[in-house]
Structures are given as C-alpha cells and as structure tokens.
Amino acid sequence: MTNKTNPMLLIDFYKAVHAEMLPENITKSVSYFTPRMSRVKRWDKVVMFGLQGFIKTYLIDYFNEEFFDKPFEEIIYEYKRIMDASLGKDAYKIDKIESLHKLGYLPIEIVSLPEGTIVPMHVPMFGITNTHKDFAWLPQSLESLISAEMWHPMLAATVGMTYRSIVNHYYGLTCDDYIPRSKALGAFDFRGEECLESAVKAGAGWCLSFLNTATVPTIPYLEKNYFCDCTKEPVAYGSPSTEHSVMCSNYAVDGDEITLLRRLLTEIYPNTSFSAVLDSYDYWNIIDNILPQLKTEIMNHNGCMLMRGDSGDCVEVVTKTVFKLWEEFGGTVNSKGYKVLDPHVKAIYGDSITVQRCEEIYRILMKNGFACSNVALGVGSFSFQCIEEDGVLKPFTRDTFSSCIKATYCEIDGKATPIFKNPKDGGFKKSQKGCCRVYTRYDGSIYYEDELTWKPATDYEKRGNMLITVFKDGELLKEQSLKEIRDRLHGGEF
Predict the structure, then answer these.
(1) pTM
(2) Following DSSP, what letter does each residue of 50-118 receive, concatenated?
(3) What CA–CA distances, in Å, run from 242 to 281, 303, 319?
C-alpha cells in the first residue's frame, strides 16, 4: 500500500461507532470468515490462501509501522481530524483507539485452516477473536480490511487450481508422465489487473499451481511472506520473449522479419529457449514461408523457439501452428501414442485464453493425435477477473463466493453467548452459531461443527480441529512455506 495511513482508519465509517453499541460488560467476541455460496457453477470449493501474507503485511508490519511505532499524539490527531470532519465529533469515542495504542500490540488471536486446503462452501476458513477483555470490539473492526484483502488471493488460487485440473486431465491422457504439469501455463495478467497489489496477489495465488508468470514482483512477495528463496528452489519462472516494439522497430531497420529471427537464434539466444511474437504483420507468412528458410538455424539452436501468435482465433491459431510445425520439423511419438514436436520448436499463445478455450485447444490437439505439451498457454487478466458461463460473463468480486466475516459468539458478564444471523428470506446468509470446529471425515471430506464455546485452540486440536492458532498478540505463531502449501494443494505432486 503506497499511501499509508493510520490503520484504524482502514474501516467503513460505521465501524468507528460499534464499540459503543455492543452490550455492556462484553469481554470476548469471535468471528469467522466463510465462503457462503458459489456464483460459478464449476466451483463448489475455494482454495484457502493469502492469510499469512495478510498477517505479515498488515497485522504485523503495517500496524507496527503506522500505529504502534508512531507517536501517540500523531495517531490520535489524525484519527480525530478525519472523524470529526467526516462523521461528527459527537458520533464516536476516541478512548478505544487511545487504549489500543497504549497497549502496544494487537490483542487478537486468529485460528485458521492450513493454507492450500480446498474448502467447501459454508465451512469457516479462519476465525478471529480478542485476547484482552477490553477489546471485544476489535475483531469486527478489522472486518473491512480483512475482507478487502482476503477474497482476491483465494479466488486467484482457485483460478490457478482450475487450470491445473484441466492440465492434469489432458496431460495425463496425452503426455509422458515425466513432463512437468507446473510449466504448462503461465500468467500474463500484470498489465490488466486493477492495480499493482492485485497483480501481485493474483500472481501469488497462481504460483500455487504453476511456475510460469510474467509478474516479477510476485517473487519477492512470496519470498517475504511464504518462506521461500528463488535462488534455492522453484518459486516462479519467466522466459525471454520479444514484443511488438522489438519486432516492428527491427522491421523498420531491416525491411524484413527474418533478419531479427536469425539473429535471435544465432547471436542473442544461441543457448537459450525464447518466444517470438510473430503476428505484428503476417503471422502465417512467417510460419509458412520464413520458418522453412530458418530450418537449419532452428535445428542447430541449443534451445526451443516458441512461435507466438497474439491475434485472431486463439484456438485455431495455436492448434494450426502445431500441425504446421509438425509438417516442417517433425518430432516423435511418446509412450502414450501422441505426437511430440521436435524439441527445437513449440507453439505459445497468450491472448484471449479462457478456461473453455484452454479445454478446447487440448481437445483438438488430442483428437488429432498430438500431446498437449506441444503448446504453452498464457492466461491473462480476464481469467483473474471474470469467467464465462452459459454465454454470460460473470465478474469476480467478494460476492463470487459470498465471502464474509460474521460474529458468532461472545461472552457477556462471564457468560458464553452464541449469536447468529439467520435472515428469513436470505438462506445463504445464515451464519454459524457459536464457536466452530472444522474436521475431516473418514472419506477425506471437510465438515464443520458449530454451537461450541470458546476454548484454547489446543483443546479443540485434540478433537481433530483443523483450525489452529496462527497469530496471537502481534506475533505470527505458525509459518507455512510455499512448498508446504503447494504440496497440500496438489497432494505432493506439484
């Protein structure tokens, strides 16, 4: 976040007044973050991801730097300046903010499912409660910030898992088992995301299922927040590639395209795989006429040249390219009986790829006897922002999974008090009641039990509770690595 401010101002206005509205003598409040329903037919589960990054970025670094480490007078002045002018001097009380700053840490405990868990609808993913009796107002005060930051990385991770399931299916049918699934697709979404933070979080969610991304800042984000090191393990990969400015400027100098392509093969990247965008003028002219002239250079190249189309019907362009490359350069037949292009050539496409088009490309390749590993596909911002179902574009928002944080339990005058929401005309908005335990049944399916009272997380862990304490009183207690999350999501077969 570039324009940082007092984190107690990262709220909807009404959060500023709820502390005074709560019952007197309330000493504890418990809330849960839950996906309540899916608005996408093919999704009945969502990937748990992003909480650790949120905790490190906001609940630790941001709160320390912009609240607890700032002078008391500065914090109170800024809060009062905004609230007095915009909400009204008599509409709120400042004492809760004063008390929190004097306390010196966030008196919050968060219990969570392990990241990388595939979670059914209605099952709580994490819970939040206060650890100090004077701050029962705080869990729900954080709702706006948590909700705004959490739904997107989970959705991005779910998008990545969706594409990975398609890859797993078609690679399993047409490719040798040793061919890595994690490199089949890449994310090309950076420039189309709504902002830098969205691009980074989308890239992080994507990298749970695939290694290839064009979003460089995803790597330092994952290294900082998910215990990994790109110099020691696979975090994310990019690849050398031309763009239209490169192709067009060289055309202006050379008067042709073959000169640059020959230079790429023999001088710039003689020992490195690269992709070249070929549709700046006439894509099929390059495929049909120029590549045959470069056959010697291509076959002597110590790497793979990926032929990239960037316009037209992506299904037709990428499949037809594979067929033509086979005719010119040949290849082999793998153990499952499908054609594999000579390793010096491959097709790549990164424009207009959707879930449906990805599946269609793979189906056509398979139908014509080609392994699906003959193409590399790039998924753009479209796939991270909407999906097409039954001819209708459905945009991705918090409401895609109706994700929400609802209070379900409190303690008043020392008495356990389950609370719940159950609108007469809004069934899917019904909340849990009381505290929750999430557990795995004998068949591996995940369920939850509610109407429980608050107990230390360790007590419920003895009953197989998957919700474990990850954050308490300003400290991260459970840190999960990127590898651990990937292994959990993909059953150890990333």
Answers:
(1) 0.95
(2) SHHHHIIIIIIIIHIIIIITS-HHHHHHHHHHHHHHHT-TTS--SHHHHHHHHH-S--EEEEEPPTT-E
(3) 14, 16, 21
CA R_g for the chain: 26
CATH numbers and ranges of domains, the chain: 163-393 (3.20.20.70)
Taking alpha carbons only, the member of 212, 305, 221, 316 closest to residue 264 is: 305
Asked if residue 31 lies in contact with residue 407, where contact means CB atoms within 8 angstroms, the answer is: yes
Find, among 439, 426, 394, the residue nearest to 36 by Cα: 426
In a 10 Å sphere around its CB, with 0-12 CB exposed, 13-18 middle and 19+ buried, how is residue 482 labelled? buried
Phi and psi at 317, nearest 5°, equal -60, -50
Contact 382, 192 (CB under 8 A): yes
The residue among 343, 429, 351, 348 whose CA lies nearest residue 383 is: 351
Coil/strand/helix, residue 404: strand
What DSSP line would sit under 249-308, residue for residue? HHHHHHSSSHHHHHHIIIIISTTS-EEEE--SS-HHHIIIIIHHHTHHHHHH-SS-EEEE
Q: Which amino acid is at 433?
A: K
Query: Six-digit token pair at 414?
Result: 């020392």
Inter-residue contact 234 to 211 (CB < 8 Å): yes
| pLDDT tens digit sequence for 308-365 | 999 999 999 999 999 999 999 999 999 999 999 999 999 999 888 999 999 999 999 9
